[in-house]
């Protein structure tokens, strides 16, 4: 099992980024998948989850209305579209297999920095 994130970078406040998480070694569509972030000096913060089956999505209040989680089953890839970015969104973003608190595999993370 491997999860590889990409798409991070530096962006000005109000900007957008799309993170990708390429999965290998398992079929992404058959697992619940989550995004988690960790800001410097802080603990991990759950961001979003997409469920298998019907694909219901859930978001932390801090990102609701600005971020969108999705997956492309043909590409076995998870995405996080991030709009209206704020400085407080600066963090290392990880994709993980599983529900919050029960993740069993994590990627290496991709850095997002929001700064003017």
Globally, the shape reads globular
Q: Poorly predicted ranges (pLDDT <50, ≥5 residues)?
A: none
Major sheet details: 7 strands, mixed
Distance between the termini: 37 Å
How much helix, percentage-wise, in residues? under 10%
User: How much is the radius of gyration in Å?
Assistant: 13 Å
What does the oligomeric state look like here? single chain
**What's the mean pLDDT score?**
96
Order of helices and strands: EEEEEEEEEEE
Strand segment count: 11
Strand content: over 45%
Structural class: mainly beta
Q: What's the helix count?
A: 0
Task: Describe this structure as you would to a colleague.
With 116 residues, the protein is mainly β. It is 0% helix and 50% strand. The chain has no helices and 11 strands. The chain has strands spanning 2-6, 9-11, 17-24, 33-38, 44-50, 57-59, 67-72, 77-82, 91-97, 105-106, 110-114. Strands 2, 4, 5, 6, 9, 10 and 11 form a 7-stranded mixed beta sheet that branches. β4 (33-38) and β5 form a beta hairpin. The protein is globular and about 40 Å long.
Element layout with pairings:
Blueprint: E1 2-6, E2 9-11, E3 17-24, E4 33-38, E5 44-50, E6 57-59, E7 67-72, E8 77-82, E9 91-97, E10 105-106, E11 110-114
Parallel strand pairs: 2-11
Antiparallel strand pairs: 1-3, 3-8, 4-5, 4-9, 5-6, 7-8, 9-10, 9-11
Brief rundown of the structure:
By secondary structure, the protein is an all-beta fold. Helices cover 0% and strands 50% of the residues.
